[in-house]
Amino acid sequence: MRCAGSVVAQLADGGFFMASQFEKGAAEPIPDQLPVRGALEAKPVSDDAQVVAEGEQVHPHLEKYRQVLVTARPVAVEAAR
Fold this sequence. Notes:
The protein has 81 residues and is an alpha+beta fold. The chain has helices at 49-53, 59-65, 77-80; strands spanning 2-5, 14-17, 39-42, 68-71.
């Protein structure tokens, strides 16, 4: 699995691609490939990860890619349960 920056306009901040989605030695996936292992939404640590994950920006990515990794300020363990 490889992570690549936003290569598709509808993509979040990045995506998780399988090696088979890249040409040999290429840094970016083959054009028009969707990230088969999910999307990445990266926010500054000043943002709350739970708020971002539940927000309007992530929802379409979750619908399309089924998995979204959100990075931001960590959520307390008790709050995440």
